Amino acid sequence: MTEKLNRRLILKVSGELFSTDEEHISFPRYDEVAKQIIEIVNQTGIQLAMVVGGGNIFRGRERDKQVDHNEADSMGMLATIMNGIALREALVRNGATSTRLMTALHIPEIAEPYIRIKGKHHLDEQRLVVLAGGMGSPGFSTDSAVAQYADELECEMVLKASTVDGIYDSDPRKNSEAKKLAEITYNYALLNGLAVMDSTAFAMCMRSQIPIFVFDIKDLSRLPDILEGDFSFGSLVTG
Description:
Strand order of the largest sheet: 4-3-5-2-1-6-10-11-9
CATH architecture: 3-Layer(aba) Sandwich
Number of helices: 7
Number of strands: 11
CATH topology: Carbamate kinase
Distance between the termini: 10 Å
Oligomer: single chain
Number of domains: 1
CATH class: Alpha Beta
Order of helices and strands: EHEHEEHEHEEEEHHEHE
């Protein structure tokens, strides 16, 4: 895929991005991410929605065996909302004053309830949109949420910020011989059980034909390059 992208993208921001070795919640990290995002949007003029994870606080899938998985997933959704509040605050404080936080769980005292048409309107008005609470139901990851929101909000591409610089044929942190895959299909990712995103998210993006670009979060500042068709710093998943 070498053609240029146009305007509307959606970014999956992992919760681990907001933590340090010393702190599960690091406000300087929210600030750092917010400044980068604002700079990217100002530089490119793109419309950007963001789905935040909650892994720095709590992951439902890492529950103890005796804990009901639905309750654990609900706790995980609340963790993403905590990150959403902090990221919105950092974006507003750094100049993106019209940023909107929308949640799948209705907590109107804190955030707008997610309504598809309203979310599209915010993006049309060039507002940053932070989406938290996953899909509002247990059993779905934030990967699935970003795939669903990408379709509903008519985004051109899913940007998946990872801890490695793309997709490999095996875990590069465990296998020094792992090979990076520059471009693959949805079917390849599904048939080979590639774990960079869950299989539901791959299948949803395949259904809607929305490409996925996986890159290292350390390269967040390079996102403007993909608008010129440069995907060399990550891996692309397409049809």
